[in-house]
Amino acid sequence: MQFKLFAVAALAASFGVPAIAADLTFEQPTPPQHPYSAYDWSGFYLGAQGGYTWIKATVLGTEQNLDSATFGAHAGYNFQSGNIVYGIENDFNYNFEDKSQADIGWDASGRARVGYALDRTLLFATAGVAAAGGKVDVPGLGKKDEILIGWTAGGGVEHALTESILVRGEYRYSDFGKKDFGSSIGDFEATQNKVLIGASYKF
Description:
single chain, mainly beta, Porin
């Protein structure tokens, strides 16, 4: 009798185990989600910018403020890997300030850019080589034009309004170094702080 009861109990248990096992579920851990930029920043772009530039220049042994409005154009190419956007950009700007003795009539740069894309918004940093056209015209001492070469660095934010239209805001600091303008004038050296807003067309 006891053997029969044991057999019945064992048989009941054999049917119950699969049912219990069926109720147990094992969930795979969810892998961490990394935000990915849906907008494609890669490609060639061309645009224009304008803003204001604060220039401090040392000419004839004295410091002068050559502040002015500025306007120019830029062109560049972006590459994209995930959310990282990197590329190169060149720009040229005309400065409207015109001092009677000295001025920086234009400035230009060739820079690398790297940024982080939040879909249609790009936060970027930039740095590279900068050049500027320095001019001195002092009665009795003569007139001299030279190109100053230095460096520039800054950053900004860019936003894609459409697939092709981009807008941006940017700040850059430039140090154009020192240039010897001859014995009668001496060294010409200049630094620049610049704030720009611009728009680009991405092809």
